[in-house]
Amino acid sequence: MEYPTVPYRPRLVPEAAQLEHAVAVFDEMNARRSVRDFSDRPVPRELVETAIRCASTAPSGAHMQPWTFVLVGDPDVKHRIRIAAETEERENYEGGRIPPHWREDLAPLGTDWRKPFLETVPWIVVVFEQRYGTRPDGTKQHHYYVKESVGIACGMFVDALHRMGLSTLTHTPSPMAFLRKLLDRPESERPFILFPIGYAADNCQVPDLKRKNLDEVMVEVTASERRRER
User: Fold this and answer.
1) Starting at the edge strand that comes first in sequence, how are the strands of the sheet with 167-168 ordered?
2) d(CA 152, CA 167)
3) Contacts of 101 by beta carbon, 8 Å cutoff, 6+ apart
């Protein structure tokens, strides 16, 4: 069976400018930081919608696009999200859910169970993974590589927001099951990541952290090395 195709002609960067372009992209992305200190300055809804559209261009298993981006701007709903998230997070930090080594690793980030930014930001986006879908005839539609697909889409969402001059945080209050009920999502969906979205506060401070060097995150394997191993 043949399926329709369309021409694809990706934009090409002139070879002489490729490295300069690549370094500029790196510099822009390397400037991105997770933010917990937000301004209450309004953010046009169209910006967030466009970022969601960007995220939805992500590759996905069998092109099922198994994600739902739930947009929240209502103050009452944001308040309820904050209360529920802080309840879970307080149990994590003070109730013993998080082991000592985890709390020690979190210490440089300056985090605790208090999440006031959930009400400060003009928007919250909660991304849900769709474990399966429903066809127009009501039958179940299988989804594939769901977590991988949704994870890629979330990464592209963060990228899009950053390029727009907006800030966010990958917030995962654990457990997150309360979000499905609070946001009235179907049984087929599970919360994946919560994104508070806004402008960084004028006096925003972030931890002085360093990212790993290239030689710490990349390994090159050559055919000759593999032959020596054998």
Assistant:
1) 67-72, 123-130, 189-198, 167-168
2) 18
3) none
pLDDT tops 70 at residue 108: yes
Look at residues 128, 117, 127, 126 and name the one whose alpha carbon lies nearest to residue 198.
117
pLDDT confidence of residue 99? 87
* Angle, in degrees to the nearest 10, between helices 146-163 and 45-55: 140
* pLDDT confidence of residue 228: 66
Least confident among 58-62, 110-114, 185-189: 110-114
Cβ atoms 97, 121 nearer than 8 A:
no
pTM of the model as a whole: 0.93
79-98 average pLDDT score: 90
Q: Which residue has the tokens 């308040």?
A: 79
Q: What's domain 34-202's architecture? A: 3-Layer(aba) Sandwich (3.40)
Distance of CA 42 to the CA centre of its chain: 21
Alpha-carbon distance of 170 to 196, in angstroms, equals 8
Element housing 189 (H / E): strand 189-198
Contacts 24+ apart (CB under 8 A), 28-36: 28/162, 28/163, 29/159, 29/162, 30/211, 32/158, 32/162, 33/167, 33/206, 34/168, 34/169, 34/170, 34/206, 35/167, 35/168, 35/169, 35/200, 35/204, 35/206, 36/110, 36/111, 36/117, 36/169
